[in-house]
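Cross-check.
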Amino acid sequence: MKPDDRLIRLLADRSLTFGDFTLASGERSTYYIDARRTTMSAHGLQLIGELALLAIREEGWCATGVGGLTMGADPVAYALALASATSPPLLDAFSVRKTTKDHGTQRQIEGNLPERGGSVIVVEDVITSGGSAIRAIEAVVRAGCSVAGVLAVVDREAGGKEAIEQTGHPVIALTSASSILDIGRK
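Predicted model, tokenized:
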């Protein structure tokens, strides 16, 4: 079984549920992909790290940081950072909070965001409307970094990928909702 087939099977088995759902975008759906059930599993972390690192290297994206809007992006960023440890150059992870902390360091971005002028890859577990990735991009740019691209584990094929691309940022997804549904309905 190819690595991407293993990821699709893992997502179908762990993350796909049928029913009546309201998505974060406000849209209704007859299925839900809770990618965290895969991205937070041991096998999912390992496989996503390997596949995501390969995908961004094939795209030629150069960056020293990887992260996105907490919490869906966090395990994806950690998986990529860990995979880069055995296949440099290194990518250090960061998390973007939905709002700036009102105590302590009062940061919106925690972890290892590169210095001003650095380049990052924004990650997402599932892209639906693209709103979470766009919010993360805006925070990173406000902090003085550039975005090489956006990587998602799953493109829900609901216009989010195109919305992000309209902001001038390339997007790659490791798989799509239709691929997961093809296996999940069997």
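The mean pLDDT is 93. Residues 42-59 form the longest helix (18 residues). Passed to J.P. for a second look.
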